[in-house]
Write the structure tokens for this entry.
Amino acid sequence: MSKPPNANPRAWFGLVILALPTLLISVDIGVLFLALPHLSADLGASSTQQLWITDIYGFVLAGFLITMGTLGDRVGRRRLLLVGAACFGVASMVAAFSTTPETIIAARALLGIAGAAMMPSTLSLITTLFEDERQRGLAIGVWVSCMMSGAALGPVIGGVLLQYFWWGAAFLLAVPIMVLLLATGPFLLPEFRNDAAGRIDLPSALLSLVAALSLVYAIKEFSLRGAETAILSGPVLALGILLAVVFARRQLRLDDPLIDIRLFSRIRFSATLLSMLFTALALAGTFLLVSQYVQSVEGLSPGRSGLWLAPAGIAIAVGSLLAPMLTSRWSAGAVMSGGFALGAIGFLMISQAPSTGGTALVTIGITLAHLGAGPVVALGAHLIVGSVPQEKAGSAASMSETANHFGSTLGLALIGTASAVIYRRAMAEEPLPPGTPENAGETLPAAANASADLAAPAGAELLSAAQSAFTTGLNTAGWIGTAVFLVLAASAAFLLREPRAIGGENSANEEEGVPDSSGQEH
């Protein structure tokens, strides 16, 4: 077999154009972390609305990824990317100038749909631009570093923008990037579509969307309100599980399914997807709390908070780019296991954060966690996209991204709402000063606002109690992250111990007999 040609300069410029929207879509997951207190005060958002403002983007994004990935394979990946870019720019402007919580929630949902239209194409087009295995591995490493560091840098960017502008500027950042993509994409990016593919199976698309949204909604509601909503969240959860089973069985019967369920019978494929999902879950949920800790507990300004959190975004980018080099010396399982072990140390540091003076400790901890996670996502994306023929790359890319975004969204919902429950219970057990409003026991920002209206001793007492209660939730998130990463480290060492996944003579495809980009098995 002749060696694939090296990529020309146009391909590398194309990678830059693909990396920018990837970075931006991920930034939008966390860009509101530091802006949320300001946005909520301006729009009068309740604690439940605040959670929906934060969560709805990731929920919808994760729900539509599989459908959009398959749609791109059929109608053209570049075409779907550009349509998504135009919609993303318009929805960003609507979000920026929202005047009610309901409007911004709806705009965030539209951003999720537009982001889902773009994300699979950004990864699958890389397989078209780069035929050489090593160059493709490096390009995927760049793509992963943008995707993962974007989520971590979202609060950083949001904090800097808040320092000089109002919260709507966090959304307007997307507009010039989308304009650049629309202007250069038709010239720098190749078009690819699978002309042999049949029509998209609409029942499968509907099943995947409703199943995903039902599962996430039920879990979020139960974790937020507990047994009091079991009468609603229980049936919704059961519905989501039932629809997911129906979806999977339908895919097995279709000649041209949305996703190839049989891929999950491969241990390394399934283990990689689950590793990516739980990695994103632990990182996103804990990062949300860390960003709120440095601002609301430590009292840093949005700009300074963003600078303290910047190393986490840089760390995951470094870890992703190091993956090809590390797997040329050690197996993928060894690299991933080592990354998880390093990340577990970081989460352990967060579990020890004090209610005052813990900025350096949590910053180092979250940075180590992100550094360890970098190789995991880079190796996982390369393995998953390389496991299918070229005409199915969009569908495979959607599975990789669904694992990441679904995990991030679940992390925000589960860890974020679990922390809220811990906060409320801790505040309910505290003897609060007379005159404390009831909403002070719901969120830390509400308690901070209430403390400013009370007399000095009472206000300080209320604020101290609220900060201590919030830190307890952060410590719990640190312990959860430690446990998750230790389990993943052991699993990676055992289940992924054989092949080197990027570059080298023993690729993941060769070891497992998966098809290469031409669709032929090794």
Q: What stands out?
A: The chain is about 75% helix and 0% strand. Residues 499-522 have pLDDT under 50 and may be disordered.
